[in-house]
């Protein structure tokens, strides 16, 4: 085994010497024939000795070739966080006082479930504006009916009739606008009793768990971007790792084995 290793090392040195010499100058026919014969002798296992000066020996490093297992894991620092697509941060749709707050940290909530109520002056004003728009529409429609009857009996002009029709369209547009304003703040008027309820229910937009809470009953909150409650689905989380550049080659797309 030792003799095979010595011959392998000698063959490697000889081949390196031949290649290095060939790279320095073109070979003539005689030199090429001699080197080809030398390589053939090395391949057949015959003894061959190459003498190198100290300068070239200093540039040569001989090491044993062996098997080595590469590491299969990449260690990196990172953090585990929630999937932002499954997180809902609840803000106040308008200013008001918090009432009927029954949820606590860790509570399971359903989509559409009321989390708390807001007693709001803005909601009361929006409801009053909506009710007034309905009253104006009723009056405009009655005026149009009366004007149409007068016009049919030649007791009203066509200009008066067109004006009455225009007033009805304006009143309907105002009703639609006030309804959209109520929908934006989550208020639904009680059409049956015609009662104005300024309490605005704030509901959860997703199924999940209450993971953060920054309000209490009786607290006055402003209509801004400050989250009052956070609801999340913790069933899916994301891991972010900081990997060194020299370890990127070891990363693969797909599930962890």
Task: Walk me through this protein's architecture.
This protein is of the alpha+beta class and 257 residues long. The protein folds into three domains: 2-58; 76-119 and 200-257, Beta Barrel (OB fold (Dihydrolipoamide Acetyltransferase, E2P)), CATH 2.40.50.100; 121-197. It is built from five helices and ten strands. The strands form three sheets. Strands 2-9-7-4 form a four-stranded antiparallel β-sheet, with no helix packed on it. The radius of gyration is 44 Å and the shape is elongated. The two termini are 41 Å apart. Residues 1-25 have low confidence and may be disordered.
Search tags:
single chain, 257 residues, alpha+beta, OB fold (Dihydrolipoamide Acetyltransferase, E2P), 3 domains, four-stranded antiparallel sheet, 5 helices, 10 strands, disordered N terminus
């Amino acid at each position: 085994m030792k003799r095979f290793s010595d011959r392998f090392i000698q063959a490697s040195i000889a081949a390196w010497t031949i290649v290095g010499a060939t790279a320095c100058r073109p070979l003539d026919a005689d030199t090429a024939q001699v080197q080809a014969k030398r390589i053939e002798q090395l391949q057949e296992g015959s003894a061959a000795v190459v003498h190198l000066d100290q300068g070239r020996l200093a540039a040569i490093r001989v090491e044993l070739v062996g098997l080595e297992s590469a590491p299969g894991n990449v260690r990196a620092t990172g953090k585990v966080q929630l999937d932002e697509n499954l997180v809902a941060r609840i803000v106040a749709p308008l200013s008001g006082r918090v009432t009927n707050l029954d949820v606590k940290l860790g509570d399971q909530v359903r989509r559409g479930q009321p989390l708390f109520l807001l007693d709001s002056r803005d909601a009361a004003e929006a409801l009053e504006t909506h009710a007034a728009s309905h009253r104006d529409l009723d009056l405009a429609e009655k005026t149009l009916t009366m004007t149409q009857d007068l016009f049919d009996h030649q007791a009203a002009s066509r200009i008066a009739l067109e004006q009455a029709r225009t007033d009805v369209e304006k009143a309907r547009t105002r009703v639609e606008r006030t309804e959209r304003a109520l929908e934006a703040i989550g208020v639904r008027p009680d059409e049956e009793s015609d009662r104005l309820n300024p309490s605005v229910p704030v509901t959860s937009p997703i199924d999940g768990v209450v993971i953060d809470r920054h309000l209490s009953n009786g607290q006055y909150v402003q209509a801004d971007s400050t989250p009052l409650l956070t609801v999340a689905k913790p069933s899916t989380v994301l891991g972010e790792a900081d990997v060194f550049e020299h370890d990127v080659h070891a990363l693969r797309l797909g599930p962890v084995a």
